[in-house]
Every structure is written in structure tokens, then in C-alpha cells.
Design a protein that fits this description.
It is found in: Cell membrane. Pfam families: LRR_1, LRR_14, LRR_8. By secondary structure, the protein is of the alpha/beta class. The chain is about 15% helix and about 25% strand.
Length: about 775
């Protein structure tokens, strides 16, 4: 039975059903995997005899009450997989009978001190991972009161150095410390803490140093070892080393295991999960390896420098995931592949045909990646027999011929990527049968014909890339009504003609519209600028294209013409918001409504016959990085408001009929002459053509400077004259009113004059004597 609703209300119902009030005798309470919401009620702590409490896998929120630290008899508390927040109460350190504490994958924050564990002497299992806001802050000499057997502090802040308190844990069997912000080397004592260690996960930290045979010498019970994601770790063992353990799960991805293939794996007869990707391994895979690989459920040797040929048959047990991508393998693709649901041979040097003539040998495949090889020949008709296929990626090879009609039988397909080949012929109508299809790449081929109406059945389609083909006809109006989930529409460089259908405005999720290099004509529909997904200024990764497909092994990609060059986007594809209608025969005035698409990053309307003026409101396109309006018939002045487009890093307004002075300030001052050439009536920097008003400004400036100088001279002499007059007249009027002052003043003047004359006579005599 599934219980839903408020936890407090649920307790109230139990209380009403009990004759003893708050159920004081209850010792076991398991409400896990329900739909309980709300906060943890304080009164739950009144269940004094409770020994077991499991509230995991619900939707409980809020902080953990401090009263939860008062359970005197509680042995086991499980609160994992909720939405609890706040700090862990210090009172938890008083749960002296607690044996199991599991609170992982919540939203807990704060600092854990030694006090939080002060009386937990009976604790054996401590799982606190998945709370990235929790920080363990204890002294380097701290010795915990417990002896743990299970410890999980993954996605937890334990760093920066390796936790020394682990040295006291002699009974630990399961230790999970991945993504725990630990850096530096692993201390030697760590490898001796427990002879019972069965599972060890230290992956995705910043660990470094050399691991030798000695480090593993006492780990005879080890079954599970994940230390991948630590690029500073180097495994240095002899070619004759035989580990003391029989491993089942091994991940050393992104560690340094090379240069040769690790021979010690030969002794591992029970391995079922093996990830040695990006491990600096080169050379060929030894033959003995295929004898131990039969039980492998996952084999990942990608991103190394492995070479040579694969065996003619790859036979595994059950549903295995095999990844040999991004190596140097060559030769023919194995013709017999059994027990494999994912096969990735992409980014290698395989050649020859696709070995699907015996389709029954690949009936288990769900995902097939053969991209970026040298595969030739046609796509076999027998591919239609593998009805379980969800992803087919044959892109970037040398495939020829037509797309087989039988591909419509692959009814589970989500992604079909046949781009960058030499495929020809018409698009098969059977593609319309792929009702689960979300991503279709047929770009860069020689496909011809029109888009068949059966494509309307592809209602889940999110990406359609048919660029660089020879497709013709009108752009179907039903695209705007059938493909309601479409995020990317790329029909670039085909032979489509006619007018742009106004129904394209119905594509409310569209991020990228590229119809460049066709023969489209007529005016740009005003309704085109009602594309809702291009309106938000700050776009987030909210569309299924970047979520659902990215959860699979397939990585979406798209080539976008931006800043005058071809740029391929993969993981950042969701950030690209653009319209490219360049190199068509579009006419009419530039619609002012285009400035409503605030989220635009790329706008290219070059190579058309568009007239009119750039609207002053173009400054509203705050996110614009690349703007190309060149080779049109635009006129008028360049709006001064463009100086506020601070993100704009590429601008091309060349070969139009713009006139007037270029507003060469702000962001506009970062562009050179090439952005403005071919506009005869345009002037000012950065062009060499000067504006007439600049010469007039200089002339008027010189006249004003001259006039200003005259005024200065006139005012100078006038002020000197007035000062002289005031210096004479003011004392005169004062002395004339006071006779005693007048006599004293002139006596003083007489003495000064006599002294000056006497000094001058003496100077003259001395000069004559010399």
C-alpha cells in the first residue's frame, strides 16, 4: 500500500486509531518508499521505545528535529533520499544505542564536529554521502568512539587531505569516499587499516602518487575497486604481478596504467565490470584477454591508444556494454556480435562494410556506434531485423547507396545519425514510421527529392538536420504543426524554393533555425519573430533534447555558422539561439519585430535583397554575439544604439547602402574596416573616408579658437586697466578725506623715492670704476 500526504496528518490518524495516545509501545516504524511530504514532526520523538525508524525514499522536507537525538533505544535510523535540509543536530551524538545511521542524498549542510559522534560507540554503518553542503571538521588526532564496517561519505566534503581518523577503523569492509574533495597522496597506513576490505571507492577526487604491489598485498578479500577519475594516480607493478584478490568490479579510468596492456588482469577470472578508459594504454589487446572477457557486463577501453584488430566474433554473456571508441583499431568490424546491447567502435580506423548480412548475430543490440571510421559500402537491408535498436550512429564514414527502406522496421529508434557520408537517392517514406524518433541527422550527403508527408508522423522529433544535400521543393508548412517539440531545424544548403511558411512560428521550442543557402523568396514573415524559445534573454538547458538523449551514450552535435566560421557545438549546444536565412532571394524590409527575440545569439540575413533600415531597437538584443546583414539593400544610418551591444564580437554590415557617420564608440569601436566596406555613403572611422561634417567641425573649431583668443586678449587688457585705475583712484579718495593720512602717506613716498635714487647713483659709480 502506498501512503501519501502529510507525515504529521498520518501520525495524527495513527494516534486516533490507538487507545494509548501517542503509541508509546511502538518499537518498529517503516514508512519507506511512500509519498510522504512535509516536515518531520517533533512529536515523533515521543516514541521512546522505538528501535527502528525508516522514512527513506519519500519527499520529506525541512530540518531534522533536534529531538530526534533523544531516542534512547534507537538502533537504526534511515532518512535517505528525501529533501531534508539544514544541519545535522548535535544531539545525534547522544544516540548511544545507534548502530546504523543513513542520511545520504538529502540537502543537508553545515559542519560536523567530533561532538556529533561523541557517544556513538555502537555505530557500525554510517552513510552520509550525497550531501555536498556537509563538511567534516575534526582534528587530525581525533579517534572516533566507533568501529565502522560500512562508511559512505561520497559527494561530501572531507578534504583537502586524506582523513587521518580512518586509521583507527580496523573493521571496515565497505568504504565509499568518491567525489569527497580529497587531494594529495594516499597514505601507506590506509592500505593496512582492514584485512576485511571488500569494496573500496575513491574515484573522482584529486588523488595522486604511485600505487605499487605492496599497497594491495593485504587486500585478499577485495571484490570492488573504483579509483577512476584521479588522473594523478599511477599504477606501477611488474608484468608478473598476481594480485591477492579476485576482483569483480574494477574501474581505473583516467589513471595511468600504461604504456602496455596490464598483464595482471590475466589472473582475474571473475571480473564482470571493467573500466580502463583514458588510462594511457597502448599496443594491442593480448589474446588471453578474450578468454576472461566472456562474463563481462561492461568493458570500457575507450580513449586509449590501442591498436590492431578485434577478433572475428565478440561473444559475451547476457546484455553487455562494450566501448572501444577513440582508439587506433583497424581492420574489419567483427561479423559476429552476441550478448551485446551497446557496441561503440567510433573514432577508430575500421574499414570495409557493415557486417549486418547476418542480422541475427546482432539481435541484442540497442545502441550501435560506428561513427568516424573508414567504413564503405551500403547500409544493409538486414538492419531492419534489429528491431531493438534505439540509437544508430554511422556518421562520418564513406557509406554509399540509398537509405534502406527496411530502416522503418527499427520501430524503437530514438536517434538516427547518418550524417557526413556519400548517401544518395530519395528519403524513404518508411522514415515516417519511426514514431519514437527524437534526433535525425542526414546532413552532408547527396540525398535528393522532397520531404514526404509521412514525416508528419515524427511528432517527437526534436532535432532535424538535413543540411548540405540536394533536397528540393517548398519548405512544408506542416513542419510548424507536426514537429511541435522541434528544438533545431537545419535545412541549410539544399535546393528548397518558395516562400517561408508562416506556420514556422508555431515551433515554440525552436532554438536554431537555419535555412541558409537555398532559393527561398519573398518577404520574411512577421510571424517568424514570435518564436517563444528565442525570447528569453537567459536560456537554460530546459529542453528534452539535451536531457533525454544526453542520458544515453549519444552526444548531440550541430555545426553552426557563427562569426564567419563553422563551429561545432556539442555539450554547449543548448546555449545557441540563432536564425540564419543567408544566401537566399528574400526581399522586403527588415522587420522591426526581429528585436523582440531578446535571446538571439546569432542572426545572419546576409546575401539577400532585404531593404529598409536597421531599427533603433536592435539594442534590445542584449545576447547577440554574431550579426551579419551584409550583401543586402539596407539603407539609412547605422543606429547609435548598437554601441550598447556589449556581447557583440562579430559584425558584418558590408555591401549595403548605409549612409552617414559610423557610431565608432563603445562596442562598435572593436570592429575594423571590413565590417563596413561597400557602403559608398558611409564615412568615419574605421573607414578612411572622412565625413564632411568632420571638416566643417575643424573649420568652425579654428574660427572659434581665433575668436576665443581675441576675447581673451580684450578681457586681459581691460582687466589690467581697471586694476591700474583702482590702484590709483582708491588711495586718492581715501587720502583726500583724511588730511593727516595724506601728509603721512606722501612723506613715506618721498623717503622711498630718495632711497631708490641714492641706491641707483651708488650702483652707477661702482659700474664706472669697473
Amino acid at each position: 500500500m502506498m501512503i501519501a500526504g502529510s507525515f504529521s496528518e498520518f501520525l495524527e490518524e495513527i494516534k486516533n486509531c490507538s487507545s494509548e495516545g501517542p503509541l508509546p509501545e511502538l518499537g518498529y516504524l517503516d514508512l519507506s518508499s511512500n509519498q510522504l511530504v512535509g516536515r518531520l514532526p517533533e512529536r515523533l520523538s515521543q516514541l521512546e521505545k522505538l528501535t527502528y525508524l525508516d522514512l527513506s525514499y519519500n519527499k520529506l522536507q525541512g530540518p531534522i528535529p533536534a529531538s530526534f537525538g533523544t531516542f534512547k533505544n534507537l538502533n537504526e535510523m534511515r532518512l535517505q533520499w528525501n529533501e531534508l535540509n539544514g544541519s545535522l543536530p548535535v544531539s545525534f551524538g547522544q544516540l548511544s544505542e545507534l548502530v546504523v545511521l543513513v542520511v545520504y542524498w538529502n540537502r543537508l549542510t553545515g559542519i560536523l564536529s567530533e561532538e556529533h559522534f561523541s557517544k556513538l560507540s555502537k555505530l557500525k554503518t554510517l552513510w552520509m554521502g550525497g550531501n555536498s553542503g556537509l563538511v567534516l571538521n575534526v582534528s587530525s588526532t581525533w579517534v572516533p568512539p566507533f568501529q565502522l564496517t560500512d562508511l559512505a561519505m561520497a559527494s561530501f566534503n572531507l578534504g583537502p587531505s586524506f582523513p587521518t581518523w580512518l586509521r583507527s577503523q580496523k573493521e571496515v569492509s565497505y568504504l565509499y569516499l568518491f567525489n569527497a574533495s580529497i587531494s594529495g597522496s594516499i597514505p601507506k597506513w590506509f592500505w593496512n587499516i582492514s584485512f576485511n576490505l571488500r569494496e573500496l571507492i575513491l574515484s573522482d577526487n584529486q588523488l595522486q602518487g604511485i600505487l605499487s604491489e605492496e599497497h594491495f598485498s593485504k587486500l585478499s578479500k577485495l571484490k570492488f575497486l573504483w579509483i577512476g577519475g584521479n588522473s594523478g594516480l599511477v599504477l606501477n607493478v611488474s608484468s608478473t604481478w598476481v594480485p591477492p584478490f579476485q576482483i569483480t568490479f574494477l574501474s581505473m579510468a583516467s589513471c595511468n596504467l600504461g604504456p602496455s596492456f596490464p598483464t595482471w588482469l590475466r589472473s582475474q577470472k571473475k571480473v564482470s565490470f571493467l573500466d580502463l578508459s583514458n588510462a594511457s594504454i597502448s599496443g594491442s589487446i593480448p589474446k588471453w584477454f578474450w578468454n576472461i572477457s566472456f562474463n563481462l557486463q561492461l568493458l570500457n577501453l575507450s580513449n586509449n591508444q590501442l591498436q590492431g584488430q578485434l577478433p572475428n566474433s565478440l561473444n559475451f554473456y547476457g546484455e553487455s556494454e562494450i566501448d572501444f571508441s577513440s582508439n587506433l583499431f583497424e581492420g574489419l568490424i567483427p561479423f559476429s556480435i552476441k550478448g551485446v546491447y551497446l557496441l561503440d567502435l567510433s573514432h577508430n580506423k575500421f574499414f570495409g562494410p557493415i557486417p549486418l548480412s547476418r542480422g541475427e548475430s546482432m539481435l541484442d543490440l540497442n545502441y550501435l556506434f560506428l561513427s568516424e571510421n573508414q567504413i564503405t559500402g551500403t547500409i544493409p537491408d538486414s538492419i531492419g531485423q534489429i528491431t531493438s535498436l534505439q540509437i544508430i550512429d554511422f556518421s562520418r564514414n564513406n557509406l554509399t547507396g540509398s537509405i534502406p527502406y527496411t530502416i522503418g522496421n527499427c520501430s524503437s529508434l530514438i536517434v538516427l545519425d547518418l550524417g557526413n557520408n556519400n548517401l544518395s537517392g530519395m528519403l524513404p517514406k518508411s522514415l515516417g514510421q519511426l514514431q519514437w524518433l527524437e534526433s535525425l541527422h542526414l546532413n552532408d550527403n547527396k540525398l535528393s527529392g522532397e520531404l514526404h508527408s509521412s514525416f508528419q508522423n515524427l511528432s517527437r522529433l526534436e532535432l532535424l538536420d538535413l543540411s548540405y544535400n540536394q533536397l528540393s521543393g517548398k519548405v512544408p508548412s506542416w513542419i510548424g504543426t507536426a514537429f511541435i517539440n522541434l528544438v533545431i531545424l537545419n535545412l541549410r544548403s539544399n535546393v528548397f524554393f518558395g516562400r517561408l511558411p508562416s506556420q514556422l512560428s508555431n515551433l515554440s521550442s525552436l532554438h536554431v533555425l537555419d535555412l541558409a543557402q537555398n532559393n527561398l523568396m519573398g518577404e520574411i514573415p512577421v510571424t517568424l519573430f514570435e518564436l517563444k524559445a528565442m525570447v528569453p534573454e537567459y536560456n537554460k538547458n530546459i529542453y528534452p533534447l539535451y536531457d533525454n538523449v544526453s542520458n544515453s551514450p549519444y552526444e548531440e552535435r550541430l555545426v553552426v555558422i557563427m562569426k564567419g566560421q563553422s563551429l561545432e557545438y556539442t555539450r554547449t549546444l543548448s546555449l545557441v539561439i540563432g536564425i540564419d536565412l543567408s544566401d537566399n532571394n528574400l526581399s522586403g524590409e527588415l522587420p522591426q519585430e526581429i528585436t523582440k527575440l531578446f535571446g538571439l545569439v546569432v542572426l545572419n540575413l546576409s546575401g539577400n535583397h532585404i531593404s529598409g533600415q536597421i531599427p533603433e531597437s536592435i539594442s534590445m538584443l542584449h545576447q547577440l554575439l554574431s550579426l551579419d546583414l551584409s550583401r543586402n539593400k539596407l539603407s539609412g544610418s547605422i543606429p547609435s544604439s548598437m554601441v550598447s551591444l556589449t556581447f557583440l564580437s562579430y559584425l558584418n554590415l558590408s555591401n549595403n547602402n548605409f549612409s552617414g557617420k559610423i557610431p565608432f564608440i563603445g562596442q562598435m569601436s572593436t570592429f575594423n574596416e571590413s565590417a563596413f566596406i561597400g557602403n559608398p555613403n558611409l564615412c568615419g572611422a574605421p573607414l578612411v573616408t572622412k565625413c564632411q561634417d568632420e571638416d566643417l567641425d575643424k573649420k568652425y573649431s579654428a574660427i572659434e579658437d581665433k575668436n576665443d583668443g581675441g576675447y581673451i586678449d580684450q578681457w586681459f587688457y581691460l582687466s589690467v586697466g581697471l586694476g591700474f585705475a583702482m590702484g590709483i583712484l582708491v588711495p586718492y579718495f581715501v587720502l583726500a578725506t583724511r588730511k593727516s593720512w595724506c601728509e603721512t602717506y606722501f612723506d613715506f613716498v618721498d623717503k622711498i623715492v630718495k632711497w631708490l635714487l641714492r641706491g641707483r647713483a651708488t650702483y652707477a659709480k661702482d659700474h664706472l670704476r669697473r
